[in-house]
Write a structure and sequence with these properties.
CATH class of the largest domain: Alpha Beta
Distance between the termini: 26 Å
Bound molecules: adenosine-5'-diphosphate, magnesium ion
CATH topology of the largest domain: Creatine Kinase, Chain A, domain 2
Number of domains: 3
CATH superfamily of the largest domain: Glutamine synthetase/guanido kinase, catalytic domain
Strand content: 5-15%
Number of strands: 19
CATH architecture of the largest domain: 2-Layer Sandwich
Number of helices: 24
Oligomer: single chain
Length: 698
């Protein structure tokens, strides 16, 4: 078999391919566009397009597509073939610079939240040259941004690129103050750890809830769940191992740096983590990873579930967003340096993140808000809905010493003075112990752990980058105006620590006492559901910050709020409809059929022995008939709740009704249905149980 290094990235038009296939002049001009955002002229674009086409055709491609991330949560592509008729009746393969740079998909069926008037159906896609093109399913995929003709973003990439530019601009101002003249650019990097479940395809096909909604809506607790803690890091089953090997190979060909894989806490749950890369590339790669995970699973007779909470009572799936900032000269700004001066710079960037997370807790919560993720956050398996920061004891002690002008090292009795002291290196071991924190410093990066497994990582990183850009802007304004840089720096770090102490918490984030302290004593926000948090996107401070850094326009924010609330309402309504359908067509008939079979055996008994006491069959029939009535009543209530919710026009009101009425009624229907599952004989039950699904893959 070929070695990995021989085929890694073989389907990617990467730097190696560009160097080999472009003239030196074209290559350097393209490099300038990639590294510095310089405009690409059309002759260069034509040359690049031609080389791309030649390379793609040589690798079996027949089509090309502008690959983009609309607001629906998946990726979109419209395939055009390279063919163009030639005068002799044949075809030639063609692809121009214009086609590379700009595409015009019919955008009318993508959500725009009112941004694109219906008469103006068209939007356009624009090439993101910083993310390499690749071949998938015989199609050359060109990563692109997607905008309306007025320039408003209709996708997730555009604001992400803008947020990266905003952070770059402000971070450079700070670096110049520290005398760094050689740095040209600061980029954020992300390594997203992706959790998922694998279930058997045949069983999946028998569950309407999984097929329509991605999660189980019914299901009695199995005799065995995750209580034995025997799955996490356990030996990987042969079928799963074969799947992982196949998946790795597909991802490596696409240049995705898939690195670690292991079993997770819940049975049938696994994780895949890549090596980190620049945020927009990491985002594209995470989308590709999710797509490949699902596709490759089918080849193995499996289905990959990316839903945040596929099974009640079993841990759900999230995504840890490991985030850092680094210069083009290779310096990680969240890594303590070798010299005292570098350390002062590190501390300033560190407190900028602390301030950002505190000031924009709501935006971070909003960035991970979906109906699916609401089942996880705060359910003692994932961080709470309250945002806080874990720094680890050592770093917390250093910040406290700075804030109070007291000695950090008790033995040395020296006061922590910036620009003088050397900071200790923070090893992972001392910083990574707390797994319950939503936002943890882990040595040289922050790990944001509230994301749901199916979320695009772009939303969280847009908010994070923008919020940090705002802290840095305020810092740069102050420091640039100061006459004595060092003392201004010291004061700034000190006051920032003092003002944002409340967001720092090193204890157990799963503890109820913490939620009480966080909300009642510290005044931190606790938006439990998507309906609670989303409307705060338009709070004045948020709009002001996001528009001032040109990450979003106000109209874009309004449209995004609309689309997200609408997605929330729609996805829960689909779940409610599926429950009604399953209850009426599968659960109630099964209960009735089983009761009938019990009743006939009860009557045989009665005939044989008329004087015998009430048989177990008779008692069970009575019980099942009562539960059946309850299921029927609750189904009818849910049906009428669906009708009322659907009739609500105002989207915020609708989302609130989904939270207060639909989700409640769904819970009420589930209880008797799950009870029935525990009573009805296996052969009568219409679909695979939790036990089958969770332990069915060998
Ligand atoms: P875990 O959290 O499971 O113990 P690691 O900390 O080793 O795993 O890595 C988690 C993820 O963090 C990986 O994707 C890794 O590439 C990424 N990562 C490591 N260093 C950085 C960094 N400086 N910036 C962003 N991500 C990073
Ligand atoms: Mg992690």
């Amino acid at each position: 078999m070929e070695t990995v290094s021989a085929y890694f990235g073989c389907l990617v038009f990467d730097d190696r391919v560009m160097k080999a296939n472009l003239s030196a002049k074209v290559y350097h001009s393209l490099k300038k566009t990639i590294d510095e955002g310089a405009e690409l002229d059309i002759t260069v674009a034509n040359a690049v397009a031609d080389a791309m086409k030649e390379w793609a055709v040589a690798h079996g491609a027949t089509h090309y597509t502008h690959w983009f991330q609309p607001l629906t949560g998946v990726t979109a592509e419209k395939h055009d073939s390279f063919i163009s008729p030639s005068p002799d009746g044949g075809v030639i393969m063609e692809f121009s610079g214009k086609e590379l740079i700009k595409g015009e998909p019919d955008a009318s069926s993508f959500p725009s939240g009112g941004l694109r008037a219906t008469f103006e159906a068209r939007g356009y896609t624009a090439w993101d040259p910083t993310s390499y093109a690749f071949i998938k399913d015989k199609t050359l995929c060109i990563p692109t941004a997607f905008c309306a003709y007025g320039g408003e973003a209709l996708d997730k990439k555009t604001p992400l690129l803008r947020s990266m530019a905003a952070l770059n601009k402000q971070a450079l101002r700070i670096l110049r103050l520290f005398g760094n003249q050689d740095v040209k650019c600061v980029r954020t990097s992300v390594g997203p750890e992706q959790e998922y479940f694998l279930v058997d395809e045949e069983m999946y096909d028998q569950r309407r809830d999984l097929r329509f909604t991605g999660r189980t809506l019914f299901g009695a607790t199995p005799p065995k769940g995750q209580e034995m803690d025997d799955h996490y890091f356990g030996a990987i089953k042969p079928r799963v191992a074969a799947y992982m090997a196949d998946l790795n190979e597909e991802l490596w060909k696409l240049g995705v740096l898939a690195k670690t894989e292991h079993n997770e806490v819940a049975p049938a749950q696994h994780e895949l983590a890549p090596i980190y890369s620049t945020t927009n590339i990491a985002t594209d790669h995470n989308q590709l990873t999710m797509e490949m995970m699902q596709k490759v699973a089918r080849r193995h007779g499996l289905v990959c579930l990316l839903h945040e909470k596929p099974f009640a009572g079993v841990n759900g799936s999230g995504k840890h967003n490991n985030w850092s900032m680094a210069t083009d000269t290779g310096v990680n700004l969240l890594s303590p340096g070798e010299t005292p001066y570098e350390n002062a710079q590190f501390l300033l960037f560190l407190v900028a993140v602390i301030k950002a997370v505190d000031d924009y807790q709501d935006l971070l919560r909003i960035s991970v808000a979906t109906a699916g993720n609401d089942h996880r956050l705060g359910a003692n398996e994932a961080p709470p809905a309250v945002v806080s920061i874990f720094l680890g004891e050592e770093l917390a002690a250093i910040l406290e010493a700075i804030e109070t002008d007291t000695p950090y090292d008790a033995k040395e009795k020296t006061t922590m003075k910036l620009g003088v002291d050397v900071l200790p290196k923070f090893s992972r071991d001392t910083t990574d112990r707390n797994r319950t924190s939503p936002f943890a410093f882990t040595g040289n990066k922050f790990e944001f752990r509230m994301l749901g497994s199916s979320n695009s990582i772009s939303c969280a990183n847009i908010m994070l980058n923008a919020a940090v850009a705002e802290s840095l802007r305020q810092f740069a304004d102050q420091l640039e105006a100061a006459s004595d840089f060092e003392s201004a720096l010291h004061d700034l770090i000190k006051t920032t620590v003092r003002e944002h102490k409340n967001i720092m918490f090193n204890g157990n984030g799963y503890d109820d006492a913490w939620i009480k302290e966080a909300t009642e004593v510290r005044g931190l926000l606790n938006y439990r559901t998507t309906a609670d948090c989303l409307p705060h996107l338009l709070d004045e401070k948020n709009v002001k910050m996001l528009t001032s850094h040109k990450v979003f326009t106000e109209a874009e924010l309004e449209s995004r709020l609309d689309i997200t609330l609408d997605n929330y309402a729609k996805s829960v309504i689909i779940e409610a409809n599926t429950m009604v359908d399953m209850a009426k067509k599968q659960i109630l008939p099964a209960v009735t059929e089983y009761a009938a079979s019990l009743a006939s055996s009860a009557s045989v008994k009665k005939e044989l022995c008329p004087s015998a006491a009430c048989s177990y069959e008779t008692k069970l029939v009575a019980k099942l008939s009562m539960i059946g009535d309850m299921i029927a009543d609750k189904t009818a209530e849910l049906e009428s709740a669906i009708v009322s919710v659907r009739a609500i026009e105002d989207i915020t009101e609708k989302a609130n009704a989904v939270r207060d009425s639909l989700l409640v009624k769904m819970g009420e229907l589930r209880t008797p249905a799950d009870e029935a599952e525990g009573l009805v004989a296996e052969e009568f039950w219409p679909y695979p149980t939790y036990g089958d699904l969770l332990f069915g893959v060998k």
